[in-house]
Amino acid sequence: MKKIVALALVVLLIGNLSFGQSIKKVKITDVLNIADTSTVPVVINFFATWCRPCVQELPWFEKIVPDYKNKNVKLILVSLDYADDYPKGILAFAKKHNITSQIVWLDEADPNYFCPKIDKRWEGTIPVSLMINNATHLRAFYDYQLPEGQLKMALDKLVE
């Protein structure tokens, strides 16, 4: 019996390691610190697994951002999912949708607190993307789904 339990644990561990995704819990101050101190262009996308436009948009980020690898663009996906979904539900979503980019979970309950810290215009809708290039002083806020073509144009602007 012990051998069966141990084998099941090994299989489960190997399965999780092969997917390679772990989700860190962060506060809005952590996200702002990344934005303010990044030495490379950074894209921060706020999403939730239950948000249809977010789910439609994520594959475009997964497909297009790696094309900017030579420009060192970093992508961070910030989950705004409910605490009950952290981390198992978010991990299951990432695995199901083959999301390999870094995901963090925003451990904040009050959008009236954290939204204006990202941008004063953010009213809490998602998806939302923030693109920052500290070297060129670019800070672009997109409070709508970025279709594939618009995402490419925004990334081109980010790395100019």
Topology:
Elements: H1 2-19, E1 24-26, H2 28-37, E2 42-47, H3 52-64, E3 74-79, H4 88-96, E4 102-106, H5 111-118, E5 128-133, E6 138-142, H6 148-158
Parallel strand pairs: 1-4, 2-3, 3-4
Antiparallel strand pairs: 2-5, 5-6
Taken from the alpha-carbon principal axes, the silhouette is globular
User: C-alpha Rg, in Å?
Assistant: 17 Å
| Biggest sheet descriptor | 6 strands, mixed
Structural class: alpha/beta
Percent helix range: 40-55%
CATH H-level superfamily title: Glutaredoxin
Count of folded domains: 1
Range of strand content:
15-25%
Provide structural commentary:
With 160 residues, the protein is α/β, with parallel strands linked by helices. It has a single domain, classed as Glutaredoxin. It has six helices and six strands, in the order H-E-H-E-H-E-H-E-H-E-E-H. The chain has helices at residues 2-19, 28-37, 52-64, 88-96, 111-118, 148-158; strands at residues 24-26, 42-47, 74-79, 102-106, 128-133, 138-142.
List keywords for this structure.
160 residues, alpha/beta, six-stranded mixed β-sheet, 6 helices, 6 strands, 19% strand
What's the short version?
The chain has helices at 2-19, 28-37, 52-64, 88-96, 111-118, 148-158, and strands spanning 24-26, 42-47, 74-79, 102-106, 128-133, 138-142. By secondary structure, the chain is α/β, with parallel strands linked by helices. The protein has one domain: Glutaredoxin (3-Layer(aba) Sandwich).
